[in-house]
Write a structure and sequence with these properties.
Pnp Oxidase, Chain A; 30% strand; eight-stranded antiparallel sheet; single chain; 23% helix; alpha+beta
């Protein structure tokens, strides 16, 4: 049976820390826009407090989460147990994008063991914490993290990543502003 939690308690924190993957869901304000769900891994999620989490946002081909958060701030993170006791945890909240130029970026980054230079850190202030049974979630065995993203980013170098992000991450698939191009305001 599902339960609503007022805050992240030690048991929920342990559950979060033991998961190798989580999913991020966002949507634009317009009913005509695309809903986005993104899987995340690479040990990129951290608990900042009883009602706050953050994750490292590594370079990627899309910028939907950033664009949606800039527009309306709505976000949900979902974690589900693929081994051990069945459980699903949803963390609903208001998210914000912290870019490398922001004063708090370095302090937040120190919470993570980064694999490559992130394009941002997503901070989520939790408004609703809900769990459910997860009885229908299949069991999977974790083998290892993938290293392709780090190798891809390394092969491009910092300048190549900047060009890639300017070309691919300046706006969402629905035309919403994403990452600013160098010199533009966020």
């Amino acid at each position: 049976m599902g339960k609503i939690h007022e805050k992240l308690d030690p048991k929920l924190e342990e559950f979060i820390r033991s998961q190798h993957v989580f999913f991020v869901g966002t949507a634009p304000s317009s009913g005509a826009g695309h809903v986005n769900v993104s899987p995340k891994g690479l040990d990129s999620l951290r608990i900042l407090g009883p009602s706050s989490v953050a994750y490292v946002d590594y370079p990627g081909s899309g910028v939907e989460t950033i664009a949606h958060l800039r527009q309306n701030g709505r976000i949900v993170l979902m974690l589900c147990a693929f081994d051990g006791p069945p459980k699903i945890l949803r963390l609903y909240g208001r998210g914000r994008v912290v870019e490398p130029v922001a004063p708090e970026f370095r302090e937040l980054l120190s919470c993570f063991d980064v694999r490559l230079q992130p394009r941002s850190i997503i901070v989520v202030d939790l408004e609703r914490i809900a769990d459910s049974c997860g009885y229908a979630v299949p069991r999977y065995e974790f083998k290892a993290e993938r290293d392709q993203l780090a190798r891809w980013a390394e092969s491009r170098g910092p300048d190549g990543l900047a060009v890639y992000q300017a070309e691919r991450n300046s706006e969402s698939i629905d035309g919403l502003p994403g990452l600013p191009i160098a010199g533009e305001p966020a």
